[in-house]
């Protein structure tokens, strides 16, 4: 069980690092790489990243309330929402909502999660500075 949990945590951290690096450096993730990470995200979260388009922060927090990997999964969902917000060009309302939901998840994790993250804190400030 511990090996499985360690593997999940490493996979979540790898995906988050990739997404955060792409967001911070304003670069696109190669299509092939995104397909691979999307498949891993689907496996870890239990739904595709596209399904996040219709989800809210509170819904995700409730969904993973009793999950051992709750914090990692919520952070992964937040990073995926931010990634999708950056890709949305023609729908300003969707872009804004995805950023807002991601901000709520990241803020929740920073305040209620089991770890403090400088990377997460930077992302929160970046979202806030960009007008959510």
What are the salient characteristics of this protein?
132 residues; mainly alpha; 6 helices
Task: Outline the structure in words.
This protein has 132 residues and is mostly helical. It has 6 helices and no strands. It has helices at residues 2-24, 31-45, 57-63, 70-87, 92-112, 118-129. The radius of gyration is 14 Å and the shape is globular. The model has no long low-confidence stretch (mean pLDDT 83).
List the helices and strands and how they pair.
Blueprint: H1 2-24, H2 31-45, H3 57-63, H4 70-87, H5 92-112, H6 118-129
Helix pairs in contact: 1-2, 1-4, 3-5, 4-5, 5-6
In short:
This protein has helices at residues 2-24, 31-45, 57-63, 70-87, 92-112, 118-129. It is an all-alpha fold and 132 residues long.
The whole-angstrom Rg is 14 Å
Determine the strand fraction and express it as a percent band.
under 5%
Class derived from helix and strand content: mainly alpha
Overall pLDDT level: 83
Which residues sit in consecutive blocks of at least 5 with pLDDT less than 50? none
Q: What is the string of helix and strand elements?
A: HHHHHH
Per DSSP, the total helix count is 6
């Amino acid at each position: 069980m511990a090996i499985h949990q360690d593997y999940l945590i490493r996979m979540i951290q790898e995906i988050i690092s990739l997404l955060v690096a792409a967001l911070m450096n304003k670069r696109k993730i190669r299509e092939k790489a995104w397909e691979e990470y999307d498949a891993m995200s689907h496996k870890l979260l239990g739904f595709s990243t596209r399904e996040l388009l219709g989800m809210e922060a509170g819904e995700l927090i409730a969904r993973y309330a009793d999950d051992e990997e709750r914090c990692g999964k919520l952070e992964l969902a937040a990073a995926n929402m931010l990634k999708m917000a950056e890709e949305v060009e023609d729908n300003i309302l969707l872009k804004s909502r995805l950023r807002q939901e991601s901000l709520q998840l990241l803020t929740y994790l920073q305040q209620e999660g089991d770890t403090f993250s400088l990377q997460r804190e930077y992302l929160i400030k970046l979202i806030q500075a960009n007008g959510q």
